[in-house]
Predict the structure.
Amino acid sequence: DPDIRGALAAGSGRNLIGTDPGFVRNPSPSGTDRGDLRLTELSPAVDMGDDGAVPEELVADLDGNPRVVGASVDIGAYEFQGETPTGREAPAIVVTTLDDAFDPYDGQTSLREALFHAGHDGLDTAVEFDSSLSSGTITLDGQSLYVDHVATVDASAIGSLVIDGDGRSRVLTVLSTEPVELAALTVTGGAEQSGAGIASFGSLGLTGVSIVGNVATSSGGGLYALATLAVVNSTIAGNAVTGTSGSGGGVYLAIETAVLTNSIVAVNAAPGDPDIRGTLATGSGHNLLGVDPGFVRNPGPGDDGQWGTADDDRGDLRLTEFSPAIDMGDSDAVPAALAADLDGNPRVVGARVDIGVYEFQSEMAPGRETPSVVVTTLADTFDFYDGQTSLREALFHAGQNVAETNVTFDASLAEGTITLDGLSLVIDHALRIDASALGELTLDADGRSRVLTVCSAEPVELIGLTITDGAALNGGGVANHGTLAILDSTIVGNTATGSSGYGGGVYNSGELTIADSIISDNTATGTYGRGGGIANYSGTVTVAGSTVSGNAATGTSSDGGGIYQSSGTLTVTCSTVSGNAATGTSADGGGIYQSSGTLTVMGSTVFGNTARSGSGIYNSYGALNVANSTVSGNTATVSGGGIYNGSSSDSMFVVNSIISGNTAATSGGGVYNDSSTSNTLSVANSVISDNVAGSGGGFYNRYGAAILTNTTIAGNRTTGSAGGGGIYIYNGTVTATNSIVALNTASSSPNVLGSLAAESSHNLVGGDPGFVRDPGPGDDGVWGTADDVAGNFRLRIGSPAVNAGSNALAVDAQGNPLTTDLDGKPRIIYATVDRGAYEFRLMADANYDGKVDVDDSKILAGNWGKSGMDWTDGDYNGDGRVNAIDAAVLAAHWGMRAFPLIPGDANDNGVVDSADAKILAGNWGKSGMTWADGDFNDDGLVNAIDAAILAAHFGMTLPTPTEATSEVQRDAATVLVGPLPVGDPVAARERIAPAARARVEQDAFAPMPTMFAGGFLMERGVEPGGDDRVEQGTYVPRSPGGVGAVDAALAESAGLLNRRADWIGVLARRHARGGEESVRDGVCLAADRLLAQW
């Protein structure tokens, strides 16, 4: 495009584009001489402008001379000030010469001149040809023809006409967004980077046009279209793209509004997509694409095997009697004006119009088979006379020659393989390939071509197929430029071979859905190859319920081992992206790489991928949303083991997700944030744990802003001397609210290296957060070995994180209140939000009032036997029903409370003092009382027992959650509060080791049904040991003990948890199971026994 590239809007015209304008002196090609751009007297620009387009204020030219001299304004910046010679020809639109000239004084009208004059000076927009030019050839003089306004070029009145670029330029460039129509022409001999025959940046229609023998170096050997295109009964063959990464040998469509009907695009050549690349809009059909059309003689590159040389053979594109094009067109799509083919013969002969630019004028060969959509052979043929229906034939017939659009297979083909014969299957209209009834069917390209190319904007579905051994520059297995759904299929062992090849398995530039499928062991091999499994370039991809595994981008700078996206929309939902690799020394994004666009990962797992950086997910210049997902076990040789965020244009959000077990050699084992200052990485309701890096084991913030809300960062570690086991803040700002950063490991600053932003608050940094199970290195004391203990970061009763957050700060990145925690439970259960990713919920507390009591039993009873229930209805095991299992859960937790409650603290203000004594005294002797009235043993009476309980705890206080700042404070949250109620004074007792205490406490609940024991013990941070067992549905610990044997341990456990009501309830249940009449009686017995010992 030496002069102009692009579209000119309606109203454009009277321009000299790509012709000799008649300057005084032309500029030199080297740029050393800028020339003299004034006009000579013979210039075609003189008096050829449109006076009506000259603004009133434009009264002078660039020299300051009058702007209009003579009949009309001149074209260009300078006005010719003299008189023009006589003998200038009148504007005309009837072409009278085959010469390619623009000379207003030669007495002839060339095609180039007619295109300039059409629609101006009262002339029609239709260019015509003098009959003397019939079957002639216009050879261009080294410059493309340009059309910048509405025009029609129709040679049908003279039979046909050839326009030949002579290998020196493109043949035709369409700039006009107003319609340009070509008919009865042959376009040949074009040479250009893109669109050697025709390049259309505007609106183009082709009717009965042959495009043959054009050669481009990049794309669109025959035709390149960037805007509206309609092609009817045309033939595009024998064109080529010669560049090593070129594609679209016949047609390259950079639009989605192209309609192709009754046309042949075949026998073209290109390294990628030899015949057609792009999307065909609704209405396309009855085309022969990428098959043998049965020409009299196929075009070819000649003996030297190189297109664009002197021995190229442009072939004979007329049809033989066996051609599949005969009678296979859509006669209704033929315009009324198209009465003749390119030879001037009748356009319709026989039952239906033929496909292509020529009509076969005799009877076709007898014995042609009946069109069918049931595939009966594994052979890859396109022969309407062999008595079999191949898949390639069925694809052509479906919805066109047969009403049925569902392509199926004969049962005899079950578990068979269709091996392609060197050409991709091409689909240009709506249909479905359904092999589900066979159990398995394989499409194998034998490494000679892509397996399947989809150009149809109408829906195409693939069901139950295995697609393998495809090889192409882009999309080794499948290339989708239209609308495609791949369902219940396997894409395996395909290769993108281009040096910048995209999509070893699947390439998409349209709309693609992959559901319930496997994309595995595909490869992008080029140095800059992208997307071993899937590549999305400016399209839309949804991967649902599928597995993307074992794919690789193997080039030095290849990105996206599993999936690569650029400038599109990618959604991965309920899927697994695992075991993929970007193996090059400069290759990133082992699982998923996003260059730009929008990436959403929901309900999915990104696991075990490898790359230089961002081994799980690498985000660069795009928006990233990760929700309800797990990113784990990924390994980076540099940074960002789990996620690398380098976006400078969009923000990243991680919500309700787990980032764990990832490794980076240098920085950011879990997350590496390198975004710009104008964008924010937001993490909410998530856990970042068990990640390892040289620095910033859990989270590394290099630049940009990060916000951590209700997030737990624990159990991460660094290697060597670097610090920041949990968070490393190198630069930028990290704001944490309602979060836990604790139990991380590093040689220095184990939890946070650097300073959290001043806006940070309501966090637990360091200290013991009261997890159900703390992470640890196991018995060998060495991290990274088989016995490492994975943390359970839910909160147990008594955790300092419970009810310690700020409700106002529990919001997402858009300021909306968080509604659920990481488990999907309500985000705020007990009035105030908890810190960290999980919200504590007391088992069997249906009404969320912080205790398990008669109100919860009433809820359960009211919904007894119902289905479709949830927690608040009394369904505690999540099976949707309220039944005996839920009743047993409630009984097992009867009397428990969610929060530390000191016996005697009637007003529940965290201290037992004179105010509580006044309450008790005011209700002395009354019945029907509650805890708030001074009834501390729950017998409904306020009496001496309650007074004794108050006296035993007088002066006791509960510690309030603190914002721990160092590991030194770990024990502050777990020190014993108040005297031990059983046995010797605390000063005289040896503290029971946590593990031993847990074991004794565990023994106390035997025999107990497994799920009940599990649920109860989990609240205390205890899980069944390896030697425990389940017998006939009953949990049996290693060393069961009686009620009396465990009282002390239970009481001490209760003291450690700052919760006297807890052990009263525990003992009550033990006594109740021992034969007492009710749980309520058990409470009384437990209280009496303990008071007696006090």
User: Anything to note?
Assistant: The chain has a mean pLDDT of 87. The chain has eleven helices and 81 strands. The longest strand covers residues 563-573. The longest helix spans residues 1079-1093.
